[in-house]
UniProtKB/TrEMBL annotation:
It comes from the Bacteria. Keywords: NADP, Oxidoreductase. One of its GO terms (molecular function) is NADPH binding. Residues 10-320 form the Enoyl reductase (ER) domain. InterPro entries: ADH-like_C, ADH-like_N, ER, GroES-like_sf, NAD(P)-bd_dom_sf, Quinone_OxRdtase_PIG3. It comes from Aeromicrobium choanae. This is Putative NAD(P)H quinone oxidoreductase, PIG3 family.
Length: 324
């Protein structure tokens, strides 16, 4: 099979489309013929040598894909060869065939193409597990999302609005601001020009912060909280270290959590995917929300897909067409 690996950590040109043996499913696993794979910032970090896969996981890049079930491992029920599926992965999605635990393989939402479906698993599982399952966002709460035009951001805005929250988000341009307003964002801050803390404080503070920036925004995130607010850090684009004023956090009776979806146990990932199918898939199927796909790139041009993310010129997700 064709698959994308990194022979030496580096820039986009270090990505190599290699010929590798097809993986075979073990007990409790499902083999999927991949149609498309989502491209995520974690893939860029892995390419650079900063985010290696968990022990025992393939070096092939890719944390999500869509495709068609080809083969079932021993003990797998509820799926059949020929089923169109979305797959949440710890690695391996940039390939023509992938193997995953059965709980991380779920039906594609009705009416969704395989290209669009490739942009669902990682982003939706990340937002759902952090904003709703961990931080407990409820109807009437206020959510601050950094990077509102990203794959995570466009997903978080739509999900939060669908469940009755008010959304504040940051973006880097007026063009992106227009997009996130159309997705439902209530307040949009151009971080190059304005202070998101002031916007949040004018609203009485936010209940949840979903942060992909990390250290650079730590103090500002705390200042943006309402009483009892929760910060969930899922990325470090703004650095690994920041100064935390514990007095300010105590005054807010706030909390901070930092999580990574990739390293969670299989059982946790299966529970997240099951909740998505139950509570979110119907909203995708009726058109209430859905993935925003910026561009589809052939697997042979995987380096170009990584360049698009590095330029931050995209809105939503970039998808690799593995069949092209």
């Amino acid at each position: 099979m064709r698959a994308v690996i990194v022979e030496e950590p580096g820039g986009p040109d270090s990505l190599v489309v290699a010929d590798l043996p097809d993986p075979e499913p073990g007990p409790g696993e499902v083999a999927v013929r991949v149609a498309a794979a989502g491209v995520n910032r974690a893939d860029l970090l892995q390419r650079q040598g900063h985010y290696p896969p968990p022990p025992g996981i393939t070096d092939v890049l890719g944390l999500e894909c869509s495709g068609v079930v080809e083969e079932l491992g021993e003990g797998v029920t509820g799926l059949a060869p020929g089923d169109e599926v979305c797959v949440l992965l710890s690695g391996g999605g940039y390939a023509e065939r992938v193997v995953a635990p059965a709980g991380q393989v779920v039906p594609v939402p009705v009416g969704t193409s395989l290209i669009t479906a490739a942009a669902i698993a990682e982003t939706y599982a990340t937002v759902w597990s952090n904003v709703f399952m961990l931080a407990g966002l409820r109807e009437g709460d206020k959510l601050l999302v950094h990077g509102g035009a990203s794959g995570i951001g466009t997903t978080a805005i739509q999900l939060a609005k669908a469940f009755g929250a008010t959304v504040v988000t940051t973006v880097g341009s007026e063009e992106k601001a227009e997009v996130v307003r159309r997705l439902g964002a209530d307040a949009v801050v151009n971080y190059r020009e304005d202070d998101f803390v002031e916007t949040c404080q004018d609203l009485g503070g936010v209940d949840v912060v979903l942060d992909i920036i990390g250290g650079k925004y730590l103090a500002q995130n705390v200042a943006s909280l309402a009483r009892g607010g929760r910060i969930v850090v899922i990325g470090m684009q703004g650095g690994r270290k920041g100064e935390l004023n514990l007095g300010a956090l105590l005054a807010k009776q706030g909390s901070i959590a930092a999580t990574s979806l990739r390293f969670r146990p299989v059982e946790e990932k299966a529970a997240i995917m099951a909740e998505l199918v139950e509570k979110v898939w119907p909203l995708i199927e009726d058109g209430t929300l859905g993935p925003v796909v910026h561009e589809t790139v052939p697997l042979s041009r995987v380096a170009d897909a990584h360049r698009i993310l590095e330029e931050s010129s995209h809105v939503g997700k970039v998808v690799l067409d593995v069949r092209a």
